[in-house]
Amino acid sequence: MRKITLALSAACLLFSLNSAVVARASAPTPVYTGTTAAILAEQAPIHWVSVAQIENSLMGRPPMAVGFDIDDTVLFSSPGFWRGKKMYSPDSEAYLKTPEFWEKMNNGWDEFSIPKEVARSLIAMHVKRGDSIFFVTGRSQTKTETVSKTLQDDFLIPAANMNLVIFAGDKPGQNTKTQWLEQKNIKVFYGDSDNDITAARDVGARGIRVLRASNSTYRPLPMAGSFGEEVIVNSEY
Fold it and tell me: Is-contact 205 181, C-beta < 8 A?
């Protein structure tokens, strides 16, 4: 009888220890990590500006040529790029070198792109000033394109202010937008990427950053304000 009692006691002890280990292993990770007022109030020390402040800074200046990047600056065009990747190169970025993708993207897929509200405000402001509007994109050029008409319709740009889209393309180790900004004498250039800001600076233009939406397919997200440039508030949409 004593042996049976001891065996039962040992079994109970082993079960208790195992239960404790399982309980610890399956304990859920805390969901609420909490925050502090200091964390909530923290802001990056960059040069934030509003559309109204940009407009005010241009008061008294005659009409000029201004430029805009397209993808993630004036259009949230990730739907087309997402579709192109799935269709042509699901496991790589090779679709960006595929002519068939650019034919589709430049000839209709921007019907699925969402115009950004910050672009509506900026373009309306520049049209009111009488500025000439240029769009300079890193997209590859195609034989035909409907991007110019889409942008003119989306942003209600009068023919007198509108210019056909410039497809600068992408060449490794070269900022392809620089020559176009210089050639068109663009004084203010808006863009979401580092290349947009450096292209403007290379030609003595004012480069102003538009925030890339956090759900953009174009990753990694750039560090806005890293060049000391102006960054437009609430410009991710």
Answer: yes
pLDDT for 39 equals 87
**Residues catalogued as catalytic:** 69, 71
For residue 101, pLDDT over 60 is answered with yes
Interatomic CA distance for residues 88 and 100, integer angstroms? 9
The predicted model scores a pTM of 0.86
pLDDT of residue 30: 74
Three-state DSSP at 66 gives strand
- CA–CA gap between residue 181 and residue 189 (Å, rounded): 8
Three-class SS of residue 41? helix
Find the helix or strand (DSSP H, E) in which 10 lies. helix 2-26
Span 172-212, pLDDT tens digits: 889 999 999 999 999 999 999 999 999 999 999 999 999 99
Question: Can you read off the two tokens belonging to residue 160?
Answer: 């007198």
**Cβ neighbours of residue 165 under 8 Å, at least 6 residues apart?**
70, 135, 136, 137, 145, 147, 148, 151
Residue with tokens 């410039």: 166
Return the pLDDT at 26.
57
